[in-house]
């Protein structure tokens, strides 16, 4: 008895395989990486595109390092291999460096300006890397630093930093700005739509520069 | 039919609702917990759900329900299936009337588990069918079908997603919510449900007779399928088949295994058509062993000859590396020199600012010192490892049992074990009865935060509410412990540093089993319930820079330029203020 391959397998044979746009959203547990990835997922749906993502769950709320892999137009597994990501959005400069090896040649990092100092460094007396030294490590890579904190303040709430970052990174995402903004409005708590819309717009502007 | 962007576990839960689920039970465990959590959140809920006290209890509840003819589901993580293994093995014999699906979520790479065991082995052991989805959509589709498969063969069906399916999101096409619910009706049939030897021998034969038909059916349904495209072939299963599809060249054949038992004739036919076959799967070489069994002339590559790693999870790059080791070409480009930047300070998850566990650990170590032996258990508090407060962790409930073993071994240093309330009610209580019965000399600390915190704050018998949201009597841990014959049972508030130290000292000076119940709600849960405490701050002039508070390990305390400071994470537990010898940490005056 012989079966044929399941749906999705038919892409393998012959015809041109469309490559997915692969990005990571990284940060510190509690910074809203999952909301940001949900917004991208929702925007993909709105544009009728496939999307796959993999999230860190469980320990994430306890201040650990978190990573979400997102593959826009992805039709296979959700994981992105090291050295192949098109984009990294990082809410923390230290985490941007930690995950920078995921980037492919010519990939881009859009990172927040600050770092949350890991508690372990105080406890174990480890050296806290300075923002300058971290930027120096990234010097070979194309990266943009965004002052998400002041942008979020300007928008009206520090909690909107993740949306600022998304706006700033939107120039690199193969998604329409409109789809992203509608997804923001759909997914943030209703009371914060105005603030987050503003945060997104400021982000878009900052990302341009 | 709606397309939604959904978490694997949410899609699985939705599929259950589509399949007219009537009953669900489970014990929380990453990565399985969101299935029942999602069922709990449904607006309209015309089915029964419960969080049970452990996986064996959950399993037997769901089994009993399935015997009454309704459709039932039990969920757990892979190691939970060890706890439920006893009923699993024999429920395969008794079979079921209503569809019965056992969801056991595996965790390759042990993202949040103590091992990387493979649930497919249990299915093989018990001789029940196992479904092994490759992605979120397939998990959804297979779950909907799992119930009918269970009813068709009157057998429990094991459903085995992995972390990268449970905690993965994708566009998913959903079906309609089912409306045909059944009501339980238990029909007596001792030959089926009473497994005395005379009955069980007959049942065992029946179980064995089902196997071939099940294997054939799984090929018919299309869960196991292949396509011949060349002289080289891949056999792959679960999510690994997605990684294979991503990189496989056009002239390489693929057999995709989505369910077990595998029809060996069918597989032999595929294998024999190739000169060389590579088996790509996560966890155990489960498919590979069958492939090796049926292969005659064909060369087989996989884990056993080092082409595919035994440990961890796969991704496109490691799958490509396996192709290469097996002497096969692949599509795609995976740079070899992409390794992480070295020398960065690590950022592990830590106990929340103000978590009562940290305060309890601190006082415990203060009294029992470096020589104290600290067996611990599984929960947020396992993170106490970073504080030197966790010396052993093996499985749920094993803090008390490992502790009493050490205490009765002749070891002279004091044994103080820690266990959370949920874990205590899971399988800790038996160990406590045993320790009391056998006169162990040890202290048992129940870290009572009234909730199962680590897996996402699910209620337990200590919380006073059920999974359905109904109020229930909350258990008295004090009375429970006393009823074991233990006279030293003290309850403390870990935020009361001095009182906690005193209680530990009394325990140290007392012989026998001592129980200390350290009660303080989980700060995340407390915040949700609107409990607010004023934050603390450091008076920089008074701070001598001794760093004692930093050693306490609260993430709200920073140490910059030789002085401590408190950041916005502070939840106002006040313990650091009691630790500071200078009295430099104070409560913020109300503005
Ligand atoms: S979630 Fe609750 S129990 Fe877990 S570390 Fe945070 S405060 Fe402690
Ligand atoms: S009071 Fe001190 S120990 Fe408690 S949360 Fe605030 S900074 Fe941390």
Which structural traits does this protein have?
heterodimer, A: 209 residues, alpha/beta, Pyruvate-ferredoxin Oxidoreductase, domain 3, six-stranded mixed beta sheet, 8 helices, 6 strands, 37% helix, 20% strand, globular, disordered N terminus, B: 591 residues, Rossmann fold, 4 domains, seven-stranded mixed beta sheet, five-stranded mixed beta sheet, 22 helices, 17% strand, binds iron/sulfur cluster
How would you describe this protein?
The complex is a heterodimer of chains A (209) and B (591). Chain A is 37% helix and 20% strand. By secondary structure, chain A is α/β, with parallel strands linked by helices. Chain A has a domain at 11-147: Pyruvate-ferredoxin oxidoreductase, PFOR, domain III (Pyruvate-ferredoxin Oxidoreductase, domain 3, 3-Layer(aba) Sandwich), CATH 3.40.920. The model of chain A is unreliable at 1-16 (pLDDT under 50). By secondary structure, chain B is an alpha/beta fold. Chain B is 37% helix and 17% strand. Chain B is built from 22 helices and 22 strands. In chain B, α1 (8-18) runs parallel beside α7 and α16 runs parallel beside α17. β2 (51-54) of chain A pairs antiparallel with β8 (168-173) of chain B, so a sheet runs across the interface. The site of one iron/sulfur cluster has 14 residues of chain B, from α22.
């Amino acid at each position: 008895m012989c079966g044929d391959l399941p749906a999705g397998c038919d892409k393998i044979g012959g015809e041109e395989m469309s490559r997915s746009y692969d990005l990571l959203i990284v940060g510190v547990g509690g910074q809203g990486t999952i909301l940001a990835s949900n917004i991208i997922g929702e925007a993909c749906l709105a544009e009728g595109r496939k999307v796959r993502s993999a999230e860190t769950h469980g320990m994430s709320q306890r201040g650990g390092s978190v990573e979400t892999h997102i593959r826009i137009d992805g039709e296979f597994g959700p994981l992105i291999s090291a050295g192949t990501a098109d984009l990294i959005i990082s809410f923390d400069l230290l985490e941007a460096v930690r995950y920078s090896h995921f980037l492919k040649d010519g990939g881009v990092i859009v990172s927040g300006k600050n770092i949350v100092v890991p508690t372990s460094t105080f406890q174990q007396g480890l050296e806290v890397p300075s923002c300058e030294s971290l930027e120096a490590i990234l010097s070979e890579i194309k990266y943009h630093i965004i002052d998400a904190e002041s942008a979020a303040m300007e928008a009206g709430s520090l909690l909107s930093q993740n949306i600022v970052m998304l706006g700033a990174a939107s120039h690199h995402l193969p998604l329409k700005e409109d789809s992203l903004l509608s997804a923001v409005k759909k997914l943030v708590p209703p009371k914060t739509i105005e603030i987050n819309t503003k945060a997104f717009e400021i982000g878009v502007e900052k990302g341009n520069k | 039919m709606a397309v939604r962007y959904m978490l694997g576990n949410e899609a699985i839960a939705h599929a259950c609702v589509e399949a007219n689920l009537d009953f669900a039970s489970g014990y929380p465990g990453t990565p399985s917990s969101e299935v029942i959590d999602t069922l709990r959140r449904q607006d309209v809920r015309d089915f029964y759900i419960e969080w049970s006290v452990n996986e064996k209890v959950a399993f037997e509840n769901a089994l009993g329900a399935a015997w009454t003819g309704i459709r039932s589901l039990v969920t757990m993580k892979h190691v939970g299936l060890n706890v439920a293994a006893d009923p699993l093995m024999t429920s395969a014999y008794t079979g079921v009337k209503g569809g019965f699906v056992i969801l056991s979520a595996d965790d390759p790479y042990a993202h949040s588990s103590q091992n990387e065991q493979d649930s497919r082995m249990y299915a093989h052991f018990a001789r029940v069918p196992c479904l092994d989805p490759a992605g979120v959509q397939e998990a959804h589709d297979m779950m909907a079908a799992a119930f009918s498969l269970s009813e068709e063969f009157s057998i429990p069906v094991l459903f085995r997603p992995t972390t990268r399916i449970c905690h993965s999101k994708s566009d998913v096409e959903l079906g309609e919510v089912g409306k045909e619910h059944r009501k339980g009706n238990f029909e007596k049939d001792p030959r089926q449900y009473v497994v005395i030897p005379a009955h069980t021998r007959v049942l065992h034969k029946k179980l064995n007779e089902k196997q071939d038909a099940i294997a054939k059916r799984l090929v018919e349904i299309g869960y196991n399928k292949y396509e011949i495209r060349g002289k080289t072939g891949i056999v792959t299963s679960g999510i690994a088949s997605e990684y294979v599809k991503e990189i496989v060249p056009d002239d390489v054949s693929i057999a995709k295994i989505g369910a077990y038992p595998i029809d060996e004739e069918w597989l032999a036919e595929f294998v024999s058509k190739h000169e060389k076959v590579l088996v790509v799967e996560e966890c155990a070489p489960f498919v590979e062993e069958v492939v090796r069994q049926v292969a005659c002339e064909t060369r087989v590559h996989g884990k056993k000859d080092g082409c595919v790693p035994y440990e961890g999870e796969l991704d496109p790059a490691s799958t490509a590396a396996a192709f290469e080791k097996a002497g096969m070409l692949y599509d795609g480009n995976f740079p070899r020199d992409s390794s992480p930047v070295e020398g960065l300070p690590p950022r592990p998850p830590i106990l929340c600012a103000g978590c009562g566990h940290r305060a309890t650990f601190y006082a415990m170590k203060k009294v029992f010192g470096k020589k104290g032996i600290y067996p611990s258990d599984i929960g947020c508090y396992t993170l106490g490892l970073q504080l030197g407060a966790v010396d052993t962790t093996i499985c749920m409930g094993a803090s008390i049992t490992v502790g009493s073993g050490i205490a009765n071994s002749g070891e002279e240093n004091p044994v103080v074990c820690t266990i959370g309330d949920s874990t205590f009610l899971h399988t800790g209580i038996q160990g406590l009865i045993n320790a009391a019965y056998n006169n162990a000399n040890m202290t048992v600390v129940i870290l009572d935060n009234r909730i199962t915190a680590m897996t996402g704050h699910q209620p337990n018998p200590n919380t006073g509410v059920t999974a359905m949201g109904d109020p229930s009597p909350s258990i008295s841990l004090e009375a429970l412990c006393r009823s074991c014959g233990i006279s030293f049972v003290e309850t403390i508030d870990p935020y009361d540093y001095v009182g906690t130290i005193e209680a530990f000292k009394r325990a140290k000076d007392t012989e026998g089993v001592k129980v200390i119940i350290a009660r303080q709600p989980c700060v995340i849960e407390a915040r949700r319930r609107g409990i607010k405490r004023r934050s603390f701050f450091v008076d920089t002039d008074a701070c001598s820079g001794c760093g004692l508070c930093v050693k306490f390990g609260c993430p709200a305390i920073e140490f910059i330029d030789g002085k401590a400071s408190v950041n916005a994470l502070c939840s106002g537990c006040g313990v650091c203020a009691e630790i500071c010898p200078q009295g430099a940490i104070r409560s913020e005056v109300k503005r």
